[in-house]
Every structure is written in C-alpha cells, then in structure tokens.
Amino acid sequence: MMHYLNFTKMPRNIILNSLKESFSSIWKNKPLFTLLFILQIVFFISFSLISYNSTSKILESAQAITEYLSQQKLDELSVADSLLGQKSILGEDPLLISRNFSEMVKNFRAYLIYIFILLIVSISAFWTLTLKLVHKINFKYAVKIFIKIFAISIFYLGLIFLFFFSIFNISFAEAAVEGAKIFSKYIPFLIFSIILAYFMFISLSLAHSAGWKNIAQKTLIIGIKKAHYILAAYLIIISLLAVSVISLAYFIEKNLFVLLLSITLMIFSFVFGRIFVVKVVERLD
Fold first, then answer.
1. How many domains, in total, are found in the chain?
2. 3 state DSSP class of 264
3. How many C-beta atoms lie closer than 10 Å to residue 220's C-beta?
C-alpha cells in the first residue's frame, strides 16, 4: 500500500519540482531569459512577415480563379449550349485556372521552405540558449550542442515538412477529380507528424546529456515508458498557451492593457515551456 502511495506521488513531485526549478533557473539567469524572450518576439515577427508575404501571393491567385469563374455562365442551359457548340464550359481561357492553381502550389511550397529554414535556425538557437540557461554550459560546448540540435531539427522537421510538401505535389486536374480524398488519405501522416513533434522536444532536451549513439534510445525510453510525465508537462504548456490565445482573442478590441499581457503570456509560454521540458526530461533521464 505504501509503495502504491509513493508511486502515485512521483509524477506530481517530478512535475512540481521541475516547475520550481524552471522558475529558479529563470530567476538566476534573467539576462539570458530576457534574450530568449526578445528572440522569441523576433521569431514571431519574422514568421508573420513571411506568412503575410506568401499568403498575399496565394490569395492573389485564388482571387484570379474566383473572379474568372464568376464571369462564366455555369447554369444548365449555358453548359448544354457550350457542349453542343463544342466550346469549353469554362470560357475562353480555361487554362487560366490551372495556371493560377499551379502558382498557388508553387507559392505554398516556397512558403514551406522559408518556414522550414526559419524553424531550423530558430529551434537550434532557442534550444541551445535554453540548455545554456539550465546547465550553464560554456561557449565551446554550446557550439557543439548547437550542431547537434541543428541535426536533430533537420531530421524531425525534414520528415514533418516532407509530408506537408507532398500534399501539394498535385496538379489542378488531380485536385478537381480527387477533391477531399487527397487530403483524407494523408490523415495517418498528419498523426505521424504529431508523434514526431512529441519525440522531437524530448530529443532536443537530451542534446546536452545524451551522445549521438544513445540519444535515439533515450528518446524512445522516456517518450514511451515515461509518457505520462511528458504528457503532463505538455498539457501544462498547452494550457498556458490556450489561456493566452483565448485572452488575446477576447480582449483584442476591448482592453489594450490585458491584450499586451496576453501577448506577453503567450511569448512567455514558449520560452518557459522549453525550460520546463528540459527540466522534466532531465529528471527522467
């Protein structure tokens, strides 16, 4: 009975102690935490600019297709008349649709490449600085960890982005015929990507303590056998993010002060989340 009570307390103790140590590390390393906070803001600004630029190009092509289709007469009588006259039911320039669709796909692929590069560089810098904050490593060792994290990020994100990239490896004709079936068959790959993201953060947290040969083994052991600890940590971080996003959405036009607090909490959630995960994985290793 006593053994059971001790076991039930273990997950809570690990999570609570990790939370305490995370705040303690932040307090003892305020300059480095501030740097991570500022870099997180820079990341969001960069992400927003890339997204805005790419999205505007994609929407231009989509609008061109919409406007062209709106000019066509697609009622039953007009379609029948076009077929009898051996004319295209999509007007005088039906290839305009496929051209703009191809442009949309090209711009989306370019967007994925830009985001992939941004994430690889940002993750490598963020997690190296996070491990430096937690473990107080010197510059020389930090460079080695940066290289390791860079390789880990390329492996995981490479697989995840390959999935998203493959979704848009289609022509307009395939999209028109297959429709929703194209996306539905990729659901298993989407689930696989979520699983990869789950293990990726564990591997990144182990970059300091695990070598090249055993990092995969340690990641699987912690991620599978001690999943309840990791999921508890992820749940806390996601809850912080959820509160900040809901508050941000609610107060966006109501209260500027609360809005700024919500944005601060959201940025804090990302920075603190990395420190917290490192602390939890450190205790499980």
1. 1
2. helix
3. 13
Cα–Cα distance for residue pair 118/163, rounded to 1 Å:
18
State the sign of the Cα–Cα–Cα–Cα dihedral 155, 157, 159, 161: negative
In a domain, residue 163? The reply is yes
| Cα–Cα distances in angstroms (integers) from residue 135 to residues 61, 153, 210, 249, in the given order | 49, 20, 14, 36
Cβ atoms of 283 and 17 closer than 8 Å: yes
Direct distance between the N- and C-terminal alpha carbons of the chain, in angstroms, rounded to an integer: 27
Is the Cβ–Cβ distance between 14 and 237 less than 8 Å? no
Position 47 in a domain: yes
pLDDT tens-place string over residues 119-171:
999 999 999 999 999 988 888 889 999 999 999 999 999 988 887 777 666 55
Question: Does residue 242 sit within a domain?
Answer: yes
Q: Round to whole Å and give the CA distance between 149 and 132.
A: 13
Report residue 154 as tokens.
Answer: 């390329």
Rounded to whole angstroms, how far apart are CA atoms 86 and 95? 17
pTM across the whole model: 0.83
String of DSSP letters for 117-149: HHHHHHHHHHHHHHHHHHH---HHHHHHHHHHH
Domain that holds residue 45: 10-58+113-284
Residue 128 lies in a domain: yes
